[in-house]
Design brief:
Shape: elongated
Largest sheet: 3 strands, parallel
Strand order of the largest sheet: 1-2-3
Number of domains: 2
Strand content: 5-15%
CATH superfamily of the largest domain: HUPs
Radius of gyration: 22 Å
Number of strands: 5
Bound molecules: tryptophanyl-5'AMP
CATH topology of the largest domain: Rossmann fold
Helix content: 40-55%
Structural class: mainly alpha
CATH architecture of the largest domain: 3-Layer(aba) Sandwich
Number of helices: 13
Length: about 325
């Protein structure tokens, strides 16, 4: 069975857009692949994070992902920072990566421009990412297009290491999520729903109350036609709401269109709000059960144990091949 692995930085809140576009995608992939999902908390540190907020967010992240349907029986879940062999592997890989290669990464170029006093961690970020991917022989790495270059670097570094020291790593490939739909901002439905960029009323957070969800959906920007029809170009607002329903309920655009023949937007929006509330309430209930339970610790303990053993084996194999043994 092929192995997929991906990581997410605990920096910022999760939105309905992240849920439909990314988390749900991994929920589907976990049935077909051996799946590894980790919280990239070391990567989060490459840009300053308030320690208290970061600490709280890490646990919230794990609880939310499980509440969203990531199944710990199918998917190995762990915290990157609890595996000390990963930064150790990363250092060995740093010695196999050229400075020119690392400094040509687009993310590094952009982020190092944003702040004059950027950290060295920002430069070595993709090499730590290579260690995340290579230690467990992941075949496929589902990421957004912005991370494709980093996965390619991991592949180049793995190939170079294999050539220099002998066959050690599986060569990984990026699986660029064709996340079909991109859920749009409710107030500005031509833009992606994003916590950092969007208008507050255009973004549904996974932690919004039923009243907040209802208010945001009832005030979502639409057009004046009052006909429920899918047309992303001319009716981006209504099409976005239809996309939300299609993805949450698993029904077709045609089903929705037929259901609302002769009915107006008010009725349609009430229907959308009820569906979003139903799904988010179920996730929030599960989240509340999890967040203060022992279950999360048990899941993370199990995940890190397996992850650590694999990373230790890979690290010792690398050391042996590189000549750093007693
Ligand atoms: P993070 O948390 O910044 O992003 C998590 C995932 O979301 C994708 N993404 C996007 N996709 C499409 N459009 C966007 N606007 C957008 N913004 C973010 C990212 O591509 C990513 O897939 N470096 C990783 C974390 C990581 C990792 C790894 C991933 C660390 N080690 C090893 C895979 C394998 C990141 O960007 O996280």
């Amino acid at each position: 069975m092929k192995k997929i692995l991906t990581g997410l930085k605990p920096t910022g809140e999760v939105t309905l857009g992240n849920y439909i576009g990314a988390i749900n995608q991994i929920v589907k992939l976990q049935d077909e692949y051996e799946t590894y999902l980790f919280v990239a908390d070391l990567h989060a540190l490459t840009v300053y994070q308030d320690p208290k907020e970061l600490h709280e967010r890490i646990k919230r992240f794990i609880a939310l992902y499980i509440a969203c349907g990531i199944n710990p029986d199918k998917c190995l879940i762990y915290l990157q920072s609890e595996n000390p062999y990963i930064p150790a592997i990363s250092f060995l890989l740093e010695c196999t990566t050229y400075y020119g290669e690392a400094s040509r990464m687009i993310q590094f170029k952009e982020k190092s421009k944003e702040n004059k006093n950027f950290s060295v961690g920002l430069l070595t970020y993709p090499i730590l990412m290579a260690a995340d991917i290579l230690y467990c022989d992941a075949n496929l790495v589902p990421v957004g297009i912005d991370q494709k270059q980093h996965v390619e670097l991991a592949r180049d570094v793995a190939m170079r290491f294999n050539n220099k020291y002998g066959e050690t790593f599986v060569l990984p490939e990026a699986l660029i999520a064709d996340f079909g739909v991109k859920i749009k901002d409710l107030k500005n439905p031509t833009k992606k729903m994003s916590k950092s960029e969007g208008n507050k009323d255009g973004v549904i957070s996974m932690f919004d109350t039923a009243d907040e969800i209802k208010r945001k959906i009832m005030h979502a920007t639409t057009d004046s036609e009052n006909v429920v029809k899918f047309d992303e170009e001319n009716k981006p607002g209504i099409s976005n709401l239809m996309n939300i329903v299609v993805n949450l309920e698993g029904i077709s655009i045609d089903d929705i269109t037929n259901k609302f023949i002769g009915k107006g937007y008010k009725e349609f929006k009430e229907y959308v709000a009820d569906i979003v509330i139903k799904h988010l309430t179920a996730i929030q209930d599960r989240y509340n059960e999890l967040i203060n339970s022992k279950e999360i610790d048990n899941i993370l303990d199990k995940g890190i144990k397996i992850s650590k053993q694999l990373a230790k084996d890979k690290y010792l194999d690398m050391c042996q091949k590189m000549g750093i043994v007693r």
